[in-house]
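S.,

Sequence below, as promised.
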Amino acid sequence: MITINPPGTQDDVDLEALVNDMASLSSYESIYATCGTQHSDFAPLLHRTDGSGLHGNRVAPLPRAPSNRVTAPHSPTQKLRRSQPMHIQAVRRLQEEELQVRPASLPAIPNPFPELCSPSGSPVLSPGSLPQNQPIIKVFSEDGVGKVVEVPADMMARDVCQFLVYKNHCLDDNCWSLVEHHSLLGLERCLEDHELVVPVQACMSPESKFLFRKNYAKYEFFRNPLNFFPEQMVAWCQETNGSIPQSQLLQNFLNSSSCPEIQGFIYMKETGRKSWKKLYMFLRRSGLYYTTKGMSKEPRHLQLLSDLEESNVFTVTTGRKMHNAPTDYQFCIKPSKGRTEQKELKMLCAEDEQSRTCWMTAFRLLKFGILLYQNYKSPHQRKTAISNFTTPVRSVSENSLVAMDFSGRTGRVIDNPVEAQSAAMEEGHTWRKRGQRMNVLGSPSPLHPSPLSSVIHRTQLWFHGRIMREESHRMIMQQGQVDGLFLLRDSQSNPKAFVLTLCHHQKIKHFQILPFEEEGQVFFSLDDGSTKFTDLIHLVEFYQLNRGILPCKLKHPCTMVAL
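The prediction came back faster than expected:
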């Protein structure tokens, strides 16, 4: 039942006051937005001592309805005046200070690893010294897999190789290189260890890329200079009656005051044509020249073909058919500044591999000079500075593997090669007898070789499975045609045999490894059964110590790393 009270009673509602109260409550939000500019002369609320201010961290309450406030009496004709909210000036000041905070005003962060700081660096990291965005490069391995590396602007090719070696747990034998590869031009070259990577990438096209690869011939000319510089191609610029003495061959290249010279015939591709012209050329510190009259060295007959300071020498990877080259031994001189088009390339072709290697190696020596020798010596100096507590990395070379005799109480080195060969044969007989005893004790049948011995070689870095003969040639050439560079692969003609591919005197040779069955067990041999081995690992280890029928010992395995 609803009861309506008459006007004038206690429960009578003042409609005008109610409407004014609702309008006042709805306008509080707009009042707060404008109070900052209209009431800037008020005292800060945090300093007030009455009940309407802030106490500690408490926020001032919202204004209550006018009925709960004590106001002065007013006439009915005067508009109802409402109290305005107080401007919180202190909070506004704190917000402005937060917006003006700079990184330099933040407290310093102690570096938890002060031993990793540079000698000139501070063990405290300030927010302003945090690393900024670094340039990135993408490095690819032989199998086409790429890895993105963030490098600073002053990072050299040696540092990138060291990073990838440690990251991928590779053998650090100072033979890794960063290769600049141009797929559209069909060119590639190994960056020198001291070259900065970021400027080189800035001159590369989007289709070009970096490769991470072995290069055993990078500094091989310091160890065997006569293999790289034939006497008939090296002469003084000045008129002399004889050639350079062998003892001073490299000193003349490294000494800036001397004037060594490489001379010989080279095929040069004519600009805009597919024809090649055979010219007699001279390589000096000032550049590469060709003569317009026979073999004359007179200045009026010499024409400058390329400057060494503004150019780099590249190997051509596309083959002779693309450029209609007269031989397979092509190389190219490409400008080092800016992106280069096909018409700016100087396409050259040597008569044999030794001549091409001589021209390209002399180009590097005359351009960089003593820097190459410092790069060659830098890893050796770094190894001598390593702490005695660090285990040295074992490198397979001619001097690190020797024949040992452990038949007595103490081991001894076998210096006599005849005794070493007989010891190896005796060890082979011992392994054969051990294999026969294992067969008697319950191992697989002697008519069927052990599964482990037949596949264990596939885990080795020097074994590359079913690759073509041409592919093995390409891999040997890419990793440097030095003596002792080798790989093993499956034979294409005999499914049960294998092939040893070996480089000697810049020539690639192939030797077939045939299986032999004796007393129910399968052995492998390179010399028609005279020297037999139970598996390919024993065969490789033997020929790393002994040359045997091979032209040289096995020294450098041709490997492919996966990033």
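Residues 136-214 form a domain with the Ubiquitin-like (UB roll) fold (CATH 3.10.20.90).

Coffee later?
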